[in-house]
User: Which sequence fits this backbone?
């Protein structure tokens, strides 16, 4: 059987969980994720875990927050004047917005609070500050 190595295109079933068991993403009952080993398409810890695995093999890994989506940064939470948004834009808590950064790629932010005068946005990844557990199963290493 083929082992997953750098350069291989692999298909992997996964379930991602938080410490309390909450599932935040899974490929079960869906298509496996596909990525090329060494192309940095998934978290490095997942790629490292899959390295050397064969189809049918399973593994569970724990990834510390700083090695996953980083630690939560309060400087990425900002209150902006509602007047700075397009006049016809209705924003609500939980909404995702694209923000254009000068000379950079747009970033996604979450609306975390709305008042009459301001909107509070959070540019942290939703999983920032969370240790993650991934159950992995290599489906195919063509």
Assistant:
């Amino acid at each position: 059987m083929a082992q997953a190595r750098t350069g291989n295109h692999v298909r992997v079933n996964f379930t991602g969980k938080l410490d309390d068991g909450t599932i935040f993403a899974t490929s079960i009952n869906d298509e496996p994720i596909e990525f090329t080993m060494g192309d940095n398409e998934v978290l490095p810890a997942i790629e490292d875990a899959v390295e050397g695995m064969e189809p049918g093999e399973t593994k569970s890994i724990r990834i510390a927050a700083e090695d996953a989506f980083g630690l939560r940064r309060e400087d990425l939470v900002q209150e902006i004047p509602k007047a700075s948004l397009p006049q016809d834009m209705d924003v609500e808590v939980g909404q995702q917005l694209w923000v254009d950064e000068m000379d950079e790629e747009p970033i996604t932010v979450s609306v975390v609070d709305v008042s009459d005068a301001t909107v509070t946005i959070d540019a942290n990844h939703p999983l920032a500050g969370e240790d993650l557990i991934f159950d992995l199963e290599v489906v195919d290493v063509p």
